[in-house]
Design a protein that fits this description.
CATH architecture of the largest domain: 2-Layer Sandwich
Structural class: alpha+beta
Distance between the termini: 46 Å
Strand content: 15-25%
CATH topology of the largest domain: Alpha-Beta Plaits
Strand order of the largest sheet: 2-3-1-5-4-9-10-11
CATH class of the largest domain: Alpha Beta
Length: 305
């Protein structure tokens, strides 16, 4: 700040410094904005890396294609932020896209940012899979969870697990579809089921599946704590964790609208290319978000829609 002040004083006599000062001011404004957002991320797990599960909902092949579009959107978002992101596992749709997919996103406050994306995302467009070119509405569920930092953080007893192996259904090498490399793990007390078939060995798939299971069990614990706090405060919150949070309309007009904050952006291409920070920032700025609560509509907001 002191250096900028000195430059500003000199700029009155040297106009060539104006561009440099403007650049420095923009950089400073960006740093202040990031610091302001991170100050609002005070939840116990907000600083952590994230695991993001995306699953196709109503809409058939269009929904599976929509789930894959969302996977790409979050990978692009992570790339824009300089985060490390990778596809941990995926199950292909019957004709196109993903029935389900799981990403890992590693970066400062990755979970804190992405928890605001939890909910159902709705797409309206002319279906590329309909020969009559009719408009199709499809849905996909986005469910971020914080990554577990140590195995002792989430207690998983071996007797609580049912582990099944099966042949991978995806494209692979010489042996990947001939041996039972895919793994499905069921956590019996909660009914949570995770599966992984992307890796070439059963051991690798099991390790990845356990990583996803630990993250989901930790998220379950977080949700139970938040619901208990909400009951103590007497808040009326929606019981539906799949509440529609955002609509992406590509036809008959173009618009992306967040139903929680009212924020609208008229360029869906820009958003689907990973520019979702305006929505994240608006969600974090909502009342109650500083306490670390996820961006989920209240029951009153849900009825109003």
């Amino acid at each position: 700040m002191k250096e900028l002040g000195e430059l500003a004083a000199v700029a009155d006599q040297d106009s060539s410094l104006e561009a440099e000062i403007s650049k420095e001011l923009r950089g400073l404004a960006d740093e202040v904005q990031v610091a302001s957002l991170e100050a609002q991320l005070s939840g116990p797990y907000d600083e952590r890396n994230a695991v993001v599960a995306i699953s196709a909902g109503v809409g058939g092949t269009d929904a599976a294609d929509w789930a894959e579009m969302l996977v790409r959107m979050y990978l692009r978002w992570a790339e824009r932020r300089g985060f490390k992101a990778e596809l941990l596992e995926s199950t292909a749709g019957d004709e196109a896209g993903f029935r389900s997919a799981t990403l890992s996103v590693d970066g400062p406050y990755a979970y804190g940012y992405l928890k605001t994306e939890r909910g159902t995302h709705r797409l309206v467009r002319i279906s590329p899979f309909d020969f009559q070119k009719r408009r199709q509405t499809s849905f996909a569920l986005v469910d971020p969870t914080p990554q577990v930092e140590s195995e002792t953080e989430v207690d998983i007893r071996p007797e609580d697990l049912r582990i099944d192996t099966y042949r991978s259904t995806g494209a692979g090498g010489q042996n990947v579809n001939k041996t039972e490399t895919a793994v499905r793990i069921t956590h019996l007390p909660t009914g949570i089921v995770v599966a992984c078939q992307n890796e070439r060995s059963q051991l690798q798939n099991r390790e990845t599946a356990m990583k996803i299971l630990r993250a989901r069990l930790l998220e379950r614990k977080v949700r139970e704590q938040e619901e208990a706090q909400a009951r103590e405060r007497g808040e009326l919150r929606s019981a539906d964790w799949g509440s529609q949070i955002r609509s992406y309309v590509l036809h008959p007009y173009t618009l992306v609208k967040d139903h929680r904050t009212g924020l609208e952006i008229g360029d869906p291409t820009r958003v689907l290319d990973g520019d979702i920070d305006p929505f994240i920032e608006a969600a974090l700025s909502r009342p109650g978000q500083a306490s670390g609560e996820p961006g989920i509509p209240t029951a009153t907001e849900e009825r109003a829609r």
